[in-house]
Design brief:
The protein is α/β, with parallel strands linked by helices. 40% of the residues lie in helices and 21% in strands. Strand 1, helix 1 and strand 2 form a beta-alpha-beta unit. The relative contact order is 0.09.
Length: 349
């Protein structure tokens, strides 16, 4: 069953002024988050779902920043509103995002009461030096403690990480992924750091003390992390940043984001790169000159195999002189493929 996520943006809190960067500012919305505005968001998305012939697993995801930044009363009011949709079987689950040092037994009991299923910790890194460098007021020890508590209360545990943090390396990012696997994470979100206007990181960017990742660098790092998580069957909720508010126009986005590896199809670039690597590895293992390869995948994977703007087709032809044929089959699971060599060079001809 496909998952349909209803994103609900938790407004950025100005009192969180210790951040050296803040992607959440991109998603600042003029509309205050209230029971009324939440119901409007939910109804709008449920109408879209009803127009579709697909059957979805529907999740409401409170994202943008820490859900517990809201007043306790508002948290309960919002969660209580969703209960009627759960009882009507129109919504299946709730996901909230929280910082590790804000996890308490009292909060977990409240979230459990309102049938929250997934808690995504905003960890960013598991390296204590890097966490301190970016102004976080928690450590890897706090992350481990919060993760254990979440599992103890039988929530689905998720983690949000960032690549390209100040003073961080690709090895640091890989170590963070491996550490989270040890904490038994079940979902992850991977976002590259963007330089946002009116943040301390803007000043570091301007005086050249911080250099953001290039798009190619970010894609390669995300590919490495995706491989690590995929091998452990960990669900990757997000790769790269997309404005959650559809009313944020491209020109507005450009005014807010000063630099960094933003690409309108960032996740597709990463997943297409993984498919390309898999096809090339298959070709290299054969002791023959391949001229044509056919890849059969689930229909939802077709575009990623072809590549962004048919990039994989062009690269295979230009670099290896191989034609790529992509076919789809509902019998193939998402992420799985059947790669066949359909034409080889005949040296006798």
């Amino acid at each position: 069953m496909k998952k349909y996520v209803i994103p609900v943006i938790v407004p950025y809190s100005e009192k969180k002024n210790d951040w050296i960067f803040d992607n959440q500012k991109i998603n600042m919305v003029s509309q205050e988050l209230t029971k009324e505005s939440l119901e409007e968001i939910i109804k709008k998305h449920l109408e879209k779902i009803e127009e579709s012939t697909e059957h979805y697993y529907v999740e409401v995801a409170f994202t943008g920043t820490d859900f517990t930044n809201l007043s306790e009363q508002l948290q309960e009011d919002l969660l209580e509103l969703i209960q009627k949709y759960i009882r009507m079987e129109r919504i299946d689950s709730i996901r909230v995002s929280i910082r590790p040092n804000n996890i308490t037994k009292q909060k977990l009991k409240m979230l459990k009461k309102y049938k929250v299923k997934t808690i995504e910790l905003e960890v960013y890194s598991t390296n204590d030096y890097i966490l301190k460098r970016i102004g976080m007021d928690y450590t890897f020890k706090d992350i481990k403690k919060a993760s254990r508590m979440i599992r103890l209360y039988r929530f689905k545990l998720g983690h949000k990480i960032m690549i390209g943090l100040p003073d961080s390396t690709k090895i640091d990012d890989i170590n963070t992924a491996k550490n989270l696997i040890k904490l038994k994470t079940t979902t992850v979100s991977i976002n590259p750091v963007l330089v946002i206007k009116n943040t301390p990181l803007e000043k570091e960017f301007e005086d050249l003390s911080y250099k953001p990742l290039a798009v190619v660098q970010a894609i390669e790092t995300c590919k490495e992390l995706a491989k690590i998580f995929n091998e452990k069957n960990i669900e990757i909720i997000a790769i790269g940043f997309e404005p959650l508010d559809s009313e944020i126009k491209q020109e507005t986005f450009s005014e807010i984001v000063l630099a960094g590896p933003f690409h309108p199809a960032f996740r597709q670039q990463v997943e297409s790169g993984l498919w390309y690597d898999a096809i090339v590895n298959k070709i290299k293992k054969l002791n023959t000159k391949v001229m044509e390869v056919e890849v059969t995948v689930n229909p939802e994977d077709t575009n990623n195999v072809i590549g962004y703007k048919q990039e994989n087709i062009e690269k295979l032809k230009n670099i290896y002189d191989v034609d790529l044929i992509v076919t789809s089959s509902q019998n193939m699971k998402r992420g799985k493929s059947k790669i066949e060599i359909t034409k080889e060079f005949n040296w006798g001809e």
